[in-house]
C-alpha cells in the first residue's frame, strides 16, 4: 500500500509571495501561445489510396467530412510513407524516425520497437496527456501492446458477429468463405446492447466517447481502424448505395464512406465540446491503395500488391486541420513523411523535439512561413532478405524526381513525376548527373542506419488483448492501491481567504501533489501540480519543503524538486460543496468568513517518471471571506 500524508494550509497570498515553487508555470520556452494545451487526433486509415477521397480528386466516392477537414486545414499532396506497408509504417510513425534506425528493413512483424527512446504516446503521456488508442495495432512485439508503450487507455475490441449456417447459405458466394471462418466476421461486430454493428461505426462511437470524457484535459487520440483493409466484401448496401463506384470497387467505396461518416461524428463532437479550434486533426493512410480491391492511386500508378515499386504505394493522402492555427483550404506540395507527425506534435505541445526523431515541425511549412521543402530528400530501403519479393524497394525523392530500383544489382530508373506521374518514361540515361547526385545521397544516408534487426523468440506470456466493450486503462493495470489518503496533519490560517492549499506526500515515490483551491470563485476551481524529488530526500526534507511553500518561517537547504508537472484540469473535480457556518477573523483583516466543506475526486493517473497516483476522494475545509 502506498503511504499518503495529507497537510492542508490556508494562506493570504498563495504563490505570489516568497517566490513559491508551486506557482511556477509548467510551460516550456517553446510553447505555442494557445490558451489551453492543444489536443491531437491522429487518424491512420489502412490501405486508403491517394485517389480514393474527394478532396484528392475522387469522383465516385463522396467523402464530405474528410473534404471538410481539408477545407478547414491544409491538404498535403506529397506526403510519404518511407517504411511501407502496414506494420513498418506504424512503427516508423509511432517512433518518429525511419524504421531502419532500429533495424526494420521490411515487414519484420514482431521486431521490437526501441525502448531506449519514447514512443509518441509515451512522450505525450509523460507531458500530461491522456493518450487513447482505437483499432488496429500491429506495432512491435507481442509484449509491446499499446498500454505497455505509452497509451493510457485503449478501446476494447468488441466481439465479432458469428454467422449462422442459415445466414451463410443466403450470402453471395464471395462472402460465404469469409462468413464461415470460426473467428467470425471481419467488419461486423456486436455492441454492448447485443446489436450487430459495422465495426467502423462502432469505432466512431468510441472516438466521440473519448472526446467527451476527456474534454477538460489535454488528450491524444490515435484511431487506426481495420478499414479499409481487404476484404471489403461485407460492405452493406446502405453504404455502397451512397456511391457511384462500379464493379469490385463498389465494396471498397462503401467501406470508405463509413470512414467518412466517423470523421463527421468526430468533427461534430469537437464542435459540441468547444474543442475544434484547439484540436489538431491529422488524417492519413498507412500506405497506398490496394489495387485488388479497386483502390486508386490516381494520378499516380501502383499501390499495395503488384504495384509496390511505383509511387502509388508510398504516396498517401494527408490532411492537417486546426482552424485558427493552420490556414484553411490551403494545399501544401512540399515533401513530408509520416515520421514528421511526432516532431510536429512535440512542437505543438510546447516541447523540444526528441533527439532521436528524423522528422521536423511541419507547422512553419503548413503556415507558409517556410517556403522550402521540409525534407530536401526522402529515402527508402526495403531489402529485408526474408520479406516478400514484391516489397523490395530502394528509392529516393528529390524535387520532382523519383529514383528507384528493386535490388542493389539493378540499374537505377529515374522519373520526372511532374511531367510523368504514371512513371512511363525512364529518363535516367538523359540525366546521369541527377542519378549520380541522388544515388550518392541515398548511399550516404544508408551509412547512418542500424543493422538488420532480428525478431526475438518470446516465451514470456504476452499481455492479454483487451476484448469486450468500453475501455481498458493503464491505470487499472498498474495502480492497484486505490486508497483514500490519511489526514495526518491539518493546519488552518484564518488569513487564508484567497486560496486553499492541499498537500499530499507520496513518500515511496518521493513526490508531493499540491492542489490549489480558488476561494474567490463559488465553484472552487482547482489547479494541481505534482513535484518529484531525488530518491535520497528524507521525510523531514519533504516536510520542510512544504513548509516553505506557505510559511514566513523559511527552512534553509530544503530539497528542490527534480520534476514539476502541471496536471490537466480534469484531473481533480469538485463534486460538492456545503456551507458549514461562519467565523470571525481573529487576525488583522476585519470581517467574517464562511466555512465550506468542499469534496473533490482525483482520477487515478500514471504521470510518467515512475509516478503513479491512485484515485481517491476527500473533503477539505475552505474559508471564504464575506463581501
The total number of structural domains is: 2
The biggest beta sheet is recorded as:
10 strands, mixed
General form:
globular
Query: What's the CATH superfamily of the largest domain, by name?
Result: Alkaline Phosphatase, subunit A
CATH class of the largest domain reads Alpha Beta
Number of beta-strand segments = 27
CATH topology of the largest domain: Alkaline Phosphatase, subunit A
pLDDT under 50 segments (min length 5)?
8-35, 477-496
Number of helices: 13
What portion of residues belong to β-strands?
Answer: 25-35%
Distance between the termini: 44 Å
User: What is the alpha-carbon Rg in Å?
Assistant: 28 Å
Class from helix and strand fractions: alpha/beta
Kindly state the mean pLDDT as a whole number? 87
Portion of residues within helices = 10-25%
**Architecture of the largest domain in CATH?**
3-Layer(aba) Sandwich
Structure description:
The protein has helices at residues 64-71, 86-95, 120-126, 165-170, 173-179, 199-213, 237-240, 249-272, 340-348, 363-366, 432-446, 474-478, 539-548; strands at residues 4-11, 39-45, 73-80, 130-135, 153-155, 188-190, 196-198, 219-224, 279-285, 315-321, 330-332, 336-337, 377-382, 393-398, 401-405, 413-416, 471-473, 486-490, 499-506, 511-518, 526-532, 563-566, 572-584, 592-602, 605-608, 611-613, 616-625. Helix 6 packs parallel to helix 8. Strand 19 (499-506) and strand 20 form a beta hairpin. The model is unreliable at 8-35 and 477-496 (pLDDT under 50). Strands 2, 3, 4, 5, 8, 9, 10, 11, 12 and 17 form a 10-stranded mixed β-sheet that branches. A 6-stranded mixed β-sheet has the order 18-1-19-20-21-22, with no helix packed on it. Strands 13-14-15-16 form a 4-stranded antiparallel β-sheet, covered by helices on one side. The relative contact order is 0.17. The radius of gyration is 28 Å and the shape is globular. 20% of the residues lie in helices and 26% in strands. With 627 residues, the protein is of the alpha/beta class. The chain folds into 2 domains: 4-26 and 479-625, no CATH class; 39-156 and 199-322 and 376-474, Alkaline Phosphatase, subunit A. The protein contains 13 helices and 27 strands.
Amino acid at each position: 500500500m502506498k503511504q499518503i500524508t495529507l497537510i492542508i494550509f490556508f494562506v493570504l497570498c498563495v504563490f505570489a509571495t516568497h517566490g513559491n515553487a508551486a506557482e511556477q508555470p509548467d510551460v516550456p520556452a517553446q510553447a505555442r501561445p494557445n490558451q489551453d494545451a492543444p489536443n491531437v487526433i491522429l487518424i491512420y486509415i489502412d490501405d486508403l489510396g491517394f485517389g480514393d477521397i474527394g478532396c484528392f480528386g475522387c469522383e465516385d466516392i463522396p467523402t464530405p467530412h474528410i473534404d471538410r477537414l481539408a477545407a478547414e486545414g491544409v491538404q498535403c499532396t506529397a506526403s510519404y510513407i518511407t517504411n511501407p506497408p502496414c506494420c513498418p509504417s506504424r512503427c516508423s510513425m509511432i517512433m518518429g524516425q525511419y524504421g531502419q534506425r532500429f533495424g526494420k528493413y521490411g515487414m519484420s512483424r514482431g521486431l521490437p520497437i526501441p525502448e531506449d527512446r519514447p514512443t509518441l504516446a509515451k512522450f505525450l503521456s509523460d507531458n500530461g496527456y491522456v493518450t487513447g488508442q482505437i483499432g488496429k495495432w500491429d506495432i512491435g512485439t507481442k509484449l509491446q501492446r499499446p498500454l505497455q508503450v505509452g497509451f493510457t487507455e485503449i478501446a476494447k475490441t468488441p466481439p465479432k458477429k458469428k454467422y449462422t449456417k442459415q445466414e451463410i447459405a443466403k450470402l453471395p458466394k464471395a462472402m460465404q468463405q469469409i462468413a464461415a471462418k470460426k473467428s467470425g466476421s471481419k467488419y461486423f461486430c456486436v455492441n454492448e446492447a447485443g446489436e450487430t454493428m459495422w465495426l467502423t461505426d462502432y469505432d466512431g462511437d468510441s472516438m466521440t466517447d473519448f472526446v467527451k470524457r476527456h474534454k477538460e484535459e489535454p488528450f491524444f487520440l490515435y484511431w487506426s481502424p481495420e478499414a479499409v483493409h481487404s476484404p471489403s466484401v461485407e460492405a452493406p448496401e446502405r453504404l455502397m448505395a451512397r456511391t457511384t463506384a462500379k464493379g469490385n470497387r463498389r465494396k471498397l467505396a462503401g467501406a470508405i464512406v463509413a470512414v467518412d461518416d466517423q470523421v463527421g461524428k468526430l468533427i461534430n463532437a469537437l464542435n459540441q465540446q468547444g474543442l475544434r479550434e484547439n484540436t489538431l486533426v491529422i488524417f492519413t493512410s498507412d500506405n497506398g491503395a490496394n489495387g485488388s480491391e479497386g483502390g486508386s492511386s490516381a494520378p499516380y500508378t501502383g499501390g499495395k500488391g503488384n504495384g509496390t515499386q511505383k509511387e502509388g504505394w508510398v504516396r498517401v493522402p494527408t490532411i492537417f486541420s486546426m482552424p485558427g492555427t493552420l490556414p484553411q483550404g490551403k494545399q501544401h506540395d512540399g515533401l513530408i513523411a509520416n515520421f514528421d507527425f511526432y516532431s510536429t506534435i512535440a512542437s505543438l505541445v510546447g516541447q523540444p523535439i526528441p533527439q532521436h526523431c528524423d522528422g521536423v515541425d511541419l507547422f512553419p511549412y503548413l503556415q507558409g512561413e517556410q517556403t522550402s521543402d521540409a525534407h530536401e530528400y526522402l529515402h527508402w530501403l526495403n531489402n529485408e532478405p526474408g520479406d516478400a519479393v514484391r516489397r523490395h524497394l530502394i528509392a529516393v525523392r528529390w524535387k520532382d524526381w523519383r529514383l528507384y530500383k528493386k535490388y542493389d544489382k539493378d540499374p537505377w530508373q529515374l522519373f520526372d513525376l511532374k511531367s510523368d506521374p504514371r512513371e512511363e518514361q525512364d529518363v535516367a540515361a538523359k540525366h546521369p548527373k541527377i542519378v549520380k547526385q541522388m544515388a550518392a545521397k541515398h548511399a550516404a544516408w544508408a551509412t547512418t542506419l542500424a543493422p538488420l534487426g532480428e525478431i526475438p523468440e518470446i516465451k514470456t506470456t504476452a499481455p492479454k488483448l483487451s476484448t469486450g466493450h468500453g475501455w481498458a486503462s493503464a491505470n487499472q493495470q498498474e495502480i492497484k492501491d486505490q486508497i483514500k489518503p490519511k489526514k495526518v496533519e491539518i493546519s488552518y490560517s484564518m488569513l487564508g481567504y484567497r486560496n486553499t492549499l492541499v498537500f499530499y506526500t507520496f513518500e515511496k515515490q518521493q513526490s508531493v501533489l499540491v492542489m490549489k483551491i480558488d476561494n474567490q470563485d463559488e465553484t472552487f476551481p482547482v489547479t494541481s501540480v505534482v513535484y518529484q524529488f531525488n530518491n535520497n530526500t528524507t521525510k523531514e526534507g519533504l516536510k520542510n519543503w512544504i513548509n516553505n511553500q506557505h510559511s514566513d518561517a523559511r527552512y534553509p537547504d530544503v530539497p528542490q524538486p527534480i520534476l514539476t508537472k502541471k496536471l490537466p484540469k480534469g484531473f481533480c473535480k469538485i463534486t460538492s460543496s456545503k456551507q458549514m457556518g461562519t467565523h470571525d477573523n481573529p487576525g488583522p483583516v476585519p470581517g467574517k468568513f464562511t466555512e465550506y466543506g468542499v469534496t473533490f475526486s482525483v482520477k487515478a493517473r500514471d504521470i510518467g517518471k515512475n509516478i503513479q497516483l491512485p484515485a481517491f476522494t476527500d473533503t477539505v475545509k475552505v474559508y471564504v471571506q464575506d463581501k
